[in-house]
């Protein structure tokens, strides 16, 4: 190939520092190059622009070195000018990362594998959080890192690519769940904090490119295998991870690489929750110390005939639902990949690859819950912020629930790339890919639920008390149990059937993409140009027993609760044990009832079905008043209003010019680019409106909303944006670099927000009517970004950098909640027009985000010891204002100071690494699980977190090693709260995880 004509002059004539840079860059090549055949990101126009046989010299960008040199012993240095130096292991990986960062046009951070099949972490997001400015979000139920936040922008603000290609995601958002990505055979992760206009449509947070190995990255036969077992301390059973990679090339013309990985994680997580803290107004008669003879709270505040003590005029917040549960989660994932490469002629490389993943998460949840209505609360004590910290509620029902939840996410992406070098100066490549992602394909039921308990005559005068902040306490319950008898809390003779909810979300996302890029290079000038096309088609549908009202078939709790509907007592063989709630969340204050039941929702529903067909026989306890059509089985029905079909097409043209020069003897690199994007959106859906609301005779807290027949709706919109960028790098001295970057980037609204209809759920609760509407005319977020950085590379494998950044963001999408009447339908519980809390997104305010990243990496000579440390400090002109109770409150989400420290020892085949990660409290989102209040979308804050992880490995020889890992040594717990710190929403205790395994390479 023409790319094999490389320049040897630098390593032949330079001193030790330059030779060291040449040699370490050779190793960097081995993992930087996997993406090149697929035209992955042009990170530096040196480190990533090189072809598969060249690599940059970090001391002299643009000069390449001889890739045929032989590596010396690990961790050694030589003064022999003819010998290149290669460092292996963790320190070698860190040096490769540093080389790429140094030579990049913009602000880039990289994590590369130490060797094939030896990535430094067991999860992609876990690796990324070691980088400056990057923090992670965890799944509360699993404790697994599932997403990242970069410089305060999380989720959909970050674009993730596979080898430079976008990935389809049937979850409805644009971000991916990083727990679905098998990490064992990844070659490199690149985080571009400033944009590359030739790569993608950019993102306000960062672009993450996950780069996989290909056959010609390392010609010849290669094989790697990994096997490990992991155990979570509460789950108590060892589960496996096994993987195999095989690669070979023939005659320098054809190559094949294939790998497959099976991963399982079992996690038992304890959770205490409040589903939401809606805001609303209390009546004076509800407050502690009231002497009012009667208390009948009413919204009529101007009616002189209503006593002042009954008028709801005092703002405050109350818990909608409170409970505790244990979640037993099995997470199984299969990742498979095959890559074929053909080099038919000199300068032409054709690559065909296919990436497949399937993740199945099965969760068995066992819980209790109590429901509160604001107007039913008495003896209410409000703190200085208006939070109800102490109250009682008469007749409170108690529910015990069991749920079998499944989520299957299956994704396959196939791509074809052709790269051709017509001459030493001109090359081009063409890349096309098709990807399809499905959520819950086939006949899987997403959530199969059983709800039993007692209420009515057995409802208790429950007392609810807030004992402290969410970071260290959960609320306490008092006077619980049937009719307040705590000794009968779990008396199965008094427990009857309640609601039966089955529901499944089924989504499909299909993504077509095509990119053509040309490059012309001569001397110190490089021009890249081309175009790109995306077509993303998203289909959404929901099925549930709410739609046909089967959920209320046996509601009511039965005779012990004084109800004519519901089955009680239930067969004793349905119960298979219990889970004690004493010391349920270690280290947290608060008191809970004694236990929850362990029982199977499948067996429960089978029992109810065995009672017979209520259409052909009379079944005592069946809810004949509200339920029609059920013949015995709890079949789901399609919610016609949930159907959404969104298609987004984007055409892009891009141009980037790079040149290198000297300024007063200092090497200077400059890059200027522009990208134009034109997007067309077609949104289809079915519109329905409520025509009647029916109360439930089985349970006075339940409502059924009758909807109109669906009407097809369609909306079209389009927008066009010009996105310029500029990057400059000045080498003040051989050790000190200065950078400046300026750009405009965008982040598109998620596809699941672009539907044209208003959705009103059929199954609702008294006092908690809600609806949600889409907005197909949403515009993308726009950001003008500025970076200024100084980087000091003061010795081998060591550097210190300071990077200041500023982002001016407009078109923020605000998910506001407004109270609205819909179609004049009457609320039977009030006799007045029903008021729904309607959630809808609109483009709104602007905001500025600013911050500083500090990073320090140091290796102590040849001792084997070293560390990485970084800290990020962020701020905004639009912080959250907890005193703002308007329905359109706004603040920037995701912003938090963070710090990471990794200390390591790596020498003579032994490696040990301790990672400490801290993140301050931050605003996660607007909206809670129950968000039906009068003060708009209530916030969700994530409390400060600190986690310590430990990993170690030992190489017996170059082919065989063992490794171990302990995650969450300090038993960090994840907690969230609402508007104020004592409004606990969730606390998850997911424990520690231990892993032990082996790796083999050939």
User: Which stretches of 5+ consecutive residues score pLDDT under 50?
Assistant: 1-86
Distance between the termini: 27 Å
Based on CA atoms alone, the radius of gyration comes out at 30 Å
Coarse structural class: mainly beta
**Strand residue content:** over 45%
Mean pLDDT: 85
- Main sheet, how many strands, which sense, barrel? 29 strands, antiparallel
**C-alpha geometry:** globular
Number of strand segments:
56
Q: What's the helix count?
A: 5
Estimate percent helicity: under 10%
Region (Disordered): 42-83
Membrane topology: Multi-pass membrane protein
Main location: membrane
Keywords: Cell outer membrane, Membrane, Receptor, Signal, TonB box, Transmembrane, Transmembrane beta strand, Transport
Your description of this structure?
With 1002 residues, the protein is mainly beta. It is 5% helix and 50% strand. The strands form ten sheets. The chain has a 29-stranded antiparallel beta sheet that branches. Strand 12 (239-250) and strand 13 (254-274) form a beta hairpin. Helix 2 (16-32) packs across helix 3. Residues 1-86 have low confidence and may be disordered. Residues 479-969 form the TonB-dependent receptor-like beta-barrel domain. Its main location: membrane. This is TonB-dependent receptor. Residues 42-55 have a biased composition (Low complexity). It is found in: Cell outer membrane.
Q: Topology of this protein?
A:
Layout (H helix, E strand, L loop, with lengths): L8 H5 L2 H17 L23 E2 L2 E5 L24 H15 L4 E5 L11 H5 L5 E5 L6 E6 L2 E2 L4 E4 L2 E2 L21 E5 L14 E5 L10 E11 L6 E12 L3 E21 L4 E4 L31 E4 L3 E22 L5 E24 L5 E6 L5 E9 L1 E24 L4 E14 L7 E8 L5 E6 L10 E3 L17 E2 L4 E21 L2 E20 L30 E6 L14 E5 L1 H10 L26 E2 L5 E20 L2 E22 L2 E6 L6 E6 L3 E21 L4 E12 L10 E3 L2 E3 L4 E4 L7 E15 L2 E13 L2 E8 L5 E2 L4 E2 L2 E8 L3 E13 L5 E12 L21 E10 L2 E10 L2 E5 L12 E4 L2 E13 L2 E8 L6 E4 L6 E6 L3 E9 L1
């Amino acid at each position: 190939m023409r790319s094999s004509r490389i320049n040897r002059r630098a390593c032949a004539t330079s001193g030790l520092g330059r030779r060291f840079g040449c040699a370490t860059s050779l190793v960097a090549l081995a993992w930087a190059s996997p993406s090149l055949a697929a035209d992955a990101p042009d990170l530096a126009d040196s480190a990533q622009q090189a072809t598969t046989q060249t690599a940059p010299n970090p001391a002299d960008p643009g000069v390449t070195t001889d890739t045929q040199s032989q590596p010396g012993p690990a961790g050694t240095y030589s003064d022999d000018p003819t010998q290149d130096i290669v460092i292996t292991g963790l320190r070698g990986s860190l040096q490769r990362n540093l080389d790429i960062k140094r030579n990049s046009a913009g602000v880039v951070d990289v994590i590369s594998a130490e060797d094939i099949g030896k990535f430094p972490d067991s999860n992609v997001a876990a690796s990324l959080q070691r980088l400056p400015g990057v923090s992670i979000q965890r799944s509360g139920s699993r404790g697994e890192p599932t997403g990242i936040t970069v410089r305060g922008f999380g989720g959909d603000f970050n674009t993730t690519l596979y080898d430079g290609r976008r990935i389809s995601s049937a979850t409805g958002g644009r971000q991916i769940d990083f727990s679905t990505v098998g990490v064992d055979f990844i070659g490199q992760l690149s985080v571009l904090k400033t944009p590359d206009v030739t790569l993608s449509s950019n993102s306000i947070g960062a672009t993450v490119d996950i780069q996989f190995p290909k056959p010609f990255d390392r010609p010849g036969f290669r094989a790697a295998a990994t096997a490990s077992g992991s155990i979570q301390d509460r789950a108590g059973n060892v589960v496996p991870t096994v993987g195999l990679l095989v690669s070979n090339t023939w005659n320098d013309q054809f190559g094949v690489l294939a790998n497959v990985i099976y991963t399982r994680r079992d996690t038992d997580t304890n959770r205490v929750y409040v589903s939401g803290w809606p805001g609303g107004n209390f009546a004076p008669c509800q407050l502690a110390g009231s002497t009012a003879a009667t208390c009948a709270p009413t919204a009529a505040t101007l009616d002189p005939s209503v006593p002042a003590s009954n008028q709801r005029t005092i703002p405050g917040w109350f818990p909608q639902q409170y409970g505790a549960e244990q979640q037993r989660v099995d997470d199984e994932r299969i990742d498979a990949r095959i890559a074929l490469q053909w080099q038919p002629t000199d300068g032409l490389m054709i690559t065909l690859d296919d990436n497949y993943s399937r993740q199945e998460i099965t969760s068995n949840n066992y819980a209790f819950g109590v429901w509160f209505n604001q107007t039913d609360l008495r003896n209410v004590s409000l703190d200085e912020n208006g939070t109800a910290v102490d109250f009682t509620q008469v007749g409170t029902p108690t529910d015990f629930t069991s749920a079998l939840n499944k989520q299957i996410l299956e994704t396959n992406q196939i791509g074809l790339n052709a790269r051709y070098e017509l001459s030493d100066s001109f090359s081009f490549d063409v890349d096309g890919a098709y990807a399809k992602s499905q959520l819950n394909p086939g006949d899987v039921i997403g959530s199969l639920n059983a709800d039993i308990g007692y209420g009515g005559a057995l409802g208790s005068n429950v007392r609810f008390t807030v004992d402290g902040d969410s970071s260290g306490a959960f609320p306490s319950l008092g006077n619980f149990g049937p009719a307040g008898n705590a000794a009968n809390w779990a008396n199965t003779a008094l427990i009857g059937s309640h609601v039966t909810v089955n529901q499944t979300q089924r989504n499909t996302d299909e993504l077509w993409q095509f990119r053509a890029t040309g490059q012309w290079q001569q001397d110190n000038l490089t021009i890249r140009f081309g175009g790109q096309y995306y077509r993303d088609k998203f289909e959404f549908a929901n099925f549930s027993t709410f739609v046909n009202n089967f959920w209320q078939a046996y509601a009511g709790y039965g005779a012990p609760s004084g109800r004519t509907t519901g089955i009680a007592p239930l067969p004793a063989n349905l119960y298979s044990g219990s889970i004690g709630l004493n010391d349920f969340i270690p280290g947290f204050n608060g008191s809970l009832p004694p236990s929850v039941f362990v029982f199977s929702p499948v067996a429960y529903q089978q029992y109810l079905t065995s009672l017979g067909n209520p259409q052909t026989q009379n079944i005592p306890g069946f809810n004949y008043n509200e339920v029609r059509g059920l013949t015995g089985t709890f079949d789901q029905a399609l919610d016609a209003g949930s159907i959404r079909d969104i298609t987004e097409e984007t055409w892009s043209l891009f141009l980037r010019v790079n040149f290198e020069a000297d300024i007063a003897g200092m090497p200077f690199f400059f890059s200027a680019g522009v990208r134009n994007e034109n997007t067309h959106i077609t949104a289809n859906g079915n519109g329905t409106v409520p025509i009647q609301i029916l109360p439930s005779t089985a349970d006075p807290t339940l409502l059924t909303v009758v909807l109109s027949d669906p009407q097809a709706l369609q909306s079209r919109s389009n927008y066009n944006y010009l996105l310029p960028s500029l990057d400059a790098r000045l080498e003040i001295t051989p050790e000190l670099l200065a950078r400046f970057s300026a750009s405009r980037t965008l982040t598109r609204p998620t596809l699941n927000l672009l539907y044209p209809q208003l959705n009103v759920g059929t199954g609702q609760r008294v006092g908690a009517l809600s609806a949600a509407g889409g907005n197909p005319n949403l515009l993308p977020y726009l950001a003008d970004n500025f970076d200024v950085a100084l980087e000091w590379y003061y010795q081998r494998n060591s550097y210190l950098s300071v990077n200041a950044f500023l982002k001016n963001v407009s078109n923020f999408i605000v998910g506001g909640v407004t109270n609205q009447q819909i179609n004049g339908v009457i609320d039977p519980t009030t006799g007045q027009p029903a008021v729904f809390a309607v959630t809808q997104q609109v483009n709104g305010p602007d905001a500025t985000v600013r911050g500083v990243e500090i990073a320090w990496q140091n290796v102590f000579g040849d001792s084997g010891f070293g560390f990485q440390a970084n800290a990020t400090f962020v701020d905004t002109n639009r912080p959250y204002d907890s005193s703002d109770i308007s329905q359109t409150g706004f603040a920037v989400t995701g912003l938090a100071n963070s710090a990471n420290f990794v200390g390591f020892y790596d020498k003579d085949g032994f490696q040990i690494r301790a990672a400490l990660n801290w993140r301050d409290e931050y605003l996660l989102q607007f909206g809670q699980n129950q968000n039906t209040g009068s003060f708009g979308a209530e916030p969700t804050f994530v409390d400060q977190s600190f986690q310590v992880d430990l990993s170690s490995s030992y190489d017996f020889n170059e082919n065989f090693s063992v490794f171990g890992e302990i995650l969450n040594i300090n038993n960090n717990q994840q907690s969230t709260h609402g508007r104020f710190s004592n409004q606990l929403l969730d606390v998850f205790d997911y424990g520690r995880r231990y892993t032990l395994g082996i790796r083999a390479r050939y």
